[in-house]
Amino acid sequence: MRRKERNARIVTFSTLVLAVVGCDALSGVLPHFGSAPPEVKITVLRRGCSEFSRSVELKAEVPNNVSSVQWFFTDGTSQVGQTVVHTFDDSGTQQVTAIVGGQVVSRRLSIPVRGEAGPGPDPFGDDCIENEREAHVPEGTDVEYQNDPPASGPHYSGAGISPIAAGFYINPVPPEVWVHNLEHGDIVVLFDCPGDCPESLISDLRSFFAMVQHQVVITRYPGLSSPIIAVAWDVQRRFDDFDAQELRAFHDRRVGQAPEGDE
């Protein structure tokens, strides 16, 4: 089996000009006096490994005398910088507000459910995995995946067969089963050990599932090239050790971003 990375590409899917809103939109911002404030142009790029990615790079083209840009998002997070990357909870219309040199600017932007992927490279340091398409095959079919472990591809389908319920599975679940979970936007966490896995690792993984529960499958994968690999549709992240914080971050920025993830 072999694994390929996609060629790095960034695709612009919209360019926005943010409109100035009232200065009472955010408390503590002073009104602008004198000449009209300069127009702030925002470039929006889809980022990430998948064509279903909801990660967006926002870049403000600002006047030379502006030293900082503050961005505010509806999920309660904020960032500082002329260029930032944010992962939205959903596709569709989203609200973005920024403070640019004392101006408060705001605009709704559209994030298509599906669009041409622009990994170039992934802004979070995840590995982009070549897409192997999606197709249903009869149960018992031994699929030869191009990538090991796969992050897409043919899989089983059927009630009680695949996709499987979210959970921790101490015995290996075949990839032909859990790839269907990836197609539905689930996150799959694979692990392996030389010989028996230590109880501490098993306990940590069980605790991680109990913390997340939503759309996550954890299973052993014999012959795994890293102790732990987190997998989403078209993307993976490798771990040398158990790291609950980074695993949760991967889950939160990747969950639901798949062919049937928004269904």
Task: Give a concise summary.
The chain is of the alpha+beta class and 263 residues long.
Spatial strand arrangement across the major sheet = 10-15-14-12-13-11
Helix content range: 10-25%
Please report the first level of CATH classification, the CATH class of the largest domain. Answer: Alpha Beta
- The quaternary structure here is single chain
- Secondary-structure element series: EEEEEEEEEEEHEHEEEH
Number of helices: 3
Overall mean pLDDT: 82
**Contiguous runs where pLDDT drops below 50 for at least 5 residues:** 1-35
Q: Note the gap between the termini.
A: 32 Å
Radius of gyration: 21 Å
Q: State the fourth-level CATH superfamily of the largest domain.
A: Glutaredoxin
CATH architecture of the largest domain: 3-Layer(aba) Sandwich
- Class computed from helices, strands and strand pairing: alpha+beta
Number of strands: 15
Count of spatially separate domains? 2
Question: Sheet bearing the most strands, described?
Answer: 6 strands, mixed
The CATH topology of the largest domain is given as: Glutaredoxin
**Shape estimate:** elongated
Report the portion of residues in β strands.
25-35%
Strands, helices and their partners?
Blueprint: E1 11-17, E2 19-20, E3 41-47, E4 55-61, E5 69-73, E6 78-80, E7 83-87, E8 92-100, E9 103-111, E10 127-128, E11 167-169, H1 175-183, E12 187-191, H2 199-212, E13 216-220, E14 228-232, E15 235-239, H3 244-254
Parallel strand pairs: 11-13, 12-13
Antiparallel strand pairs: 1-3, 2-9, 3-4, 4-7, 5-6, 5-8, 8-9, 10-15, 12-14, 14-15
